[in-house]
Amino acid sequence: MAFVAVAIGLVTGHWLYSKEKMSNPKFNRTGDHELEYLSKFTVSGLWTLCYTNHAVLRSAPFFFMATALLVVGEISCFLGHFAPRRRYFTFLSGVTFILSGLLLLLGLVVYVSVFTAEIGGKLRPSSSLQPPMFTYTYGYSFHLVVIGFLAGKVAGTSAIFLFIY
């Protein structure tokens, strides 16, 4: 389940939904105040926005390494059911699931941190009378990677307990 959630999260492009308000140059201060700002809606993923790729460049290696470790963990878990040395493969799958979970967590933290640093002061309004110039929410792809992280941690902890007992 962890591998499937992470794989879907990595290949889909709905990591972040953002709305940026920009000043309308045609607003003459006599019309409707709703027209004072133009809104730009953006749906972005790890691979869809090229001009804000710092978050992707910094966090993508962690996601790729975590996905590779999830594959190794899945294979080890499968071999732990059928191979002659089941206990060792079960232990190996537990360790790789836990390591992949740590890499996923690290990638998520780097992605959020770099993105927040990129948009900087746009999150806060310049005055109490103005709306914030930039708002965002995380999309389903981001949430799938979080679910994959949690599932990997549960699988790793369960495999370690299976090895111990």
TrEMBL record:
GO BP term (any one): transmission of nerve impulse
Superkingdom in the source lineage: Eukaryota
GO molecular function terms attached to this record: channel regulator activity; voltage-gated calcium channel activity
Matching InterPro entries: CACNG_subunit (IPR051072), PMP22/EMP/MP20/Claudin (IPR004031)
Topology class, membrane: Multi-pass membrane protein
Transmembrane segments: 62-83, 95-120, 140-164
Xref: Pfam families: PMP22_Claudin
Protein name (record): Uncharacterized protein
Keywords from the UniProt entry: Membrane, Transmembrane, Transmembrane helix
Listed GO CC annotations: AMPA glutamate receptor complex; postsynaptic density membrane
Compartment(s) of residence: Membrane
Main localization category: membrane
PANTHER family in the cross-refs: STARGAZIN (MAMMALIAN CALCIUM CHANNEL) HOMOLOG (PTHR12107:SF0), VOLTAGE-DEPENDENT CALCIUM CHANNEL GAMMA SUBUNIT (PTHR12107)
